[in-house]
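Researcher: I'm comparing several assemblies side by side, and this is the next one on my list. It has 747 residues spread over two chains. Same procedure as the others: predict the full complex and return the structure.
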Amino acid sequence: MFNRTLRRRTVMAGVMLAALAGVSPSVLAQDLSGELVILQWQTGTDGQMWKDVEAKFMELHPGVTVREFQPAGGQGDARGGMRTALLGGEVVDIIINTWPAFRAELVNSGILRPIDDQWASFGWDDKLSQSWRDLGSIDGTTYGITYTYGDRSAIWYKTAQLEKAGITPPATWEEFLASFDKLKAAGYPAPVVIPAKYWAHTEWFETLLLRTAGVEAAAQLAAHQIPWTDPKVKTALMKYAEMLQAGCCADPATMLAIEQPYPTLYTSEDSSYLLFGMWTNSALKNDLALEEGVDYSIFQFPSLGMGFDDTSSVDAKELNVTTNGANPAAADAFLDFIVGPEASNIMANYGYASPSTAMDGSLLGPVQQIATGAVSSSKVQFVLGDLLPGDLVDEYRVQLQKFLQNPTEATVDEVLAAIEAKAATAY
Amino acid sequence: MIRSVAETVTDRSGVPSRAGGGQLRLPTTRGWRIKEAPAAWLLIAPVIILFGISVVYPLIDTIRLSFFDIKGLAPAKWVGIGNYVTLFNDATFRNTLLTTLIFTLGTTVISVSLGWVLAMLCAFAPVHTTPFRGMMFVTFGISEAVSGYMWLNILRPDKAGLLNAVIGIFVPGYAHSWLGDPNTALWALIFVASWSGVGLPLMLCFAAVQSIPKTVLEAAYMDGAKPTSIMRHIMMPLSLPGVRVAIFINLLGALRAFDIIYVMTGGGPVRATETVGYFMYRESMTQFKLGYGAAATVVLLVAVLVISIPAIIQRTAGAK
């Protein structure tokens, strides 16, 4: 009797285990094996962080070997190298991507595999909110899982400089403009550093567009549903002109020659404010050995009082899985791992914020705490430059360089007309 | 009159004689017909294969690509000469043609004339100027990317830039962004490219001067010619073949310039330093418009051919 009961219980337990195994990919994941190839283009501290993440995955899945495929780079935009690799026949399981427009290109070429089924079976809804899922979707189908994001409307500053100038982080646009004279008087001749050699000068316009016209208008502009000559766009550029005319910056030629913001801002005594991506945090912490929140900090873009001060620009990095990858099971498991506690906490220690609820928020430093708080309380819009077609984004950056040279209303009209002319052929 | 090799045979002493004269008959052009010498095929085959793979195939494929519209990872679409029509209607491309012309002429004129003058001066004391010539030639050996990074620091926009610091000795507080100002960026690039390019003209012109028979120079001295007259009336005219080669090599190098622009300005500011070579890279690799970029490549190729073919014909005629 006892034996029969034991046998029945054993059989039942076996059935239940089998059923559990059938519904829980994490159980199946223990049996993963083979090589997992990741198209990984990040270098420096970001690249090192990624190696730590991969090592942790291999520790959890000893049967899997992760191999990185590093495409040839190109002045900050890895897409050229990634396209060359994919067109050249390189087979990868996972692609690291930060450009929504590039995701669409990959989808249209049949390279990406939808991940809606995985989203349900792995239960990622518990870790990522619907807005993050929407960010990685095209026409209702999910292709990307966001693993880190950044606040692109945060202004970086050196705490000692603001203290010396006797000012606190400005909360309004007027306070911000007024702080320039105080900073100059304190010995910082160019309060705002704008590295305009390639693209960083567009950051100010993009947040100003959000703050003067809102996320809907910015989204419409990205999709060219409103023209670049729209008065809303002009208003944003005129606000930018206001800042330049208030004496924010070095002369235009100097701005147009700057490409490396970190040494400029943090090793020279010329400038104070920088509007740049959150990877700045990792670079300052790890490359320049500065103390987050002590040597430097951030404040959210000052309010303009035009009805859209609850908006922020964000960037994000996501993982995509390919249709031709040799190890789809390991790729799916890696996606699950990247939003899990182990990977999220590694990233937090490097100074990056994960959108996953699995991340231990206490690991984030004070700067990231400010940034994540600001994003969570804002209406967000992805970086405009990463949403535009490649043809257009180039013209957009060059025209804004022209604007920096002579920020008058006439130049604004001329510049917007030129971008609109390009936009008319770019979609 | 230039006689063809086929018409001439020489005896062992080098005296020309008519074919069939009973002397040793050296191979004529007709005698080297490749089908009559299978061994020649074997010897030349590796070169032909390598040339075909590394030059002919990419060239033909680039021309083929230029007739397609290829954007990113999207499938290619046949557009015929559409890319060329778009290219010549593209104001940006027309601007790059002008920039290329200025850059090419600027670097060629500066580096060749400077190299030529230095070669003349060095020729008066060839032994003593050997270290100087060696140093000048080293600049030619430095990779353009490396010299670009070096000059990037010299031309820094702030007071820490070497050039600004030197000017600052005379004009306190001077700071100019040489590479950020569209009015000076191209000229700064021309100067840097000329600096790294002056070594070759110097050596070529110096070699040409050295090949002038000493008797000619000695006769001029004996006749009481001053050094300036010797330089002007003897050395300069007789070193012209070296100058021509230097001009040819510099023109080709400047037309295809890319590395130094990529490193120093990225084609900016506001496309002020964007040459056809950089435009080609930007369209092909950054925008990934492979067909359009290929069309720009073909245009550049035609420009190179226009310069090369007359020079090659002239050199070949000279060889005969």
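Model: For your comparison table: The longest helix of chain B spans residues 91-123.
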